[in-house]
Design brief:
2 domains; 7 helices; about 40% helix; Jelly Rolls; alpha+beta; 7 strands; globular; about 220 residues
Length: about 220
Amino acid sequence: MNIDDHILLWKAASIQVLDIRYTKMQRDEQLSSYRLPASGFLYTIKGKATILLDSKSYKIENFYIAHVGKGSCLHISAVEDIVEYYLILYKATLPLPHRKSLLALWEREKPFQLQYVFQVSNALTLQQKVETMYQQWLKQDNLEHFHVKALFYQCVYELLQQLSQQHVIVQQPDLVEQIQIYIEEYYSQPITRESLAHSRVLKKTSDILRQIFVCLSSV
């Protein structure tokens, strides 16, 4: 990931916050194979656990943040004591004025599909912002939701600032693996090119369709 390109695309993107959730998991509880309906940030404020993003395993604890792309499969297990986290779901689009100059970079970098996990350095500041976002989101008021959007940008700014200062391993999602997971989940239903192409996991591009054919030929 080129951090300058990453920041440029975040700057150009139009962001819509879709949902903010707070979850408390008890010891030995687990979240099984939750497929993300949108891109999201998972922010852990308490406890230790193991998370799987598709098949990639990460250890998380207090004040860890994970970015997950739409269609990725999230699994949380090995919960020690109580784990508390927030999940912020959002959608990013490229506005028309930027399409001509940034579309190729957008499609190549796919910044809102990237997977990465790291411990935040400004934990208390970020936690305060996220908790305020959650409380404001629950009010279902336009003005308060506008405040949520403003706070979201502040949080992203702080995270991008930290990403630019330290080496964080960034993963591109494995589309073939996501397709295989999709097939395993819906093996009892007729699987067609159309159903795969319209699933949340996939985009309608020729590259992905070629990957679908490879997966279908192996089952």
